[in-house]
Amino acid sequence: MVKLIALYKQPEDRAAFDDYYFNTHAPITKEIPGLLDMKVTKIVGSPMGGESDFYLLCEMFYDSHESLKAGLKSDEGKASGKDLMGFAGNLVTLMIGEDVDEQ
User: Which of 60, 3, 5, 56 has the alpha carbon at shortest distance from 31?
Assistant: First the structure.
């Protein structure tokens, strides 16, 4: 299992970010071919106490690196990327990860 991970810093206006993310961006992203599942986590604090520098984590699951690449190259993937850069380009860090079985 391969996942594209989007980690967002704290936005200036959380309500506006949430409205756009959940009502506009997420529906665009869910249309990407090959996307098996999408899990969104709100960061509510840090273990040291207080507010985290991060606000939201999104994990997008794919069968393989090939299906992830194909999804991102699709029209839907390009639309999601363009939308992301338009509303949160300065807030987001993108990473690719693989699930690892514990040894």
Answer: 60
Interatomic CA distance for residues 13 and 63, integer angstroms: 35
> Cα-flanking dihedrals φ and ψ of residue 41, to 5°?
-125, 130
Nearest of 21, 23, 15 to residue 88 by alpha carbon = 21
Quick one: pLDDT band at residue 103, thresholds 50, 70, 90? low
Closest CA to 83 of 39, 92, 62: 92
**Helix and strand numbers, DSSP H then E, in the chain:** 4, 4
Which of helix, strand or coil describes residue 39?
strand
pTM over 0.85: yes
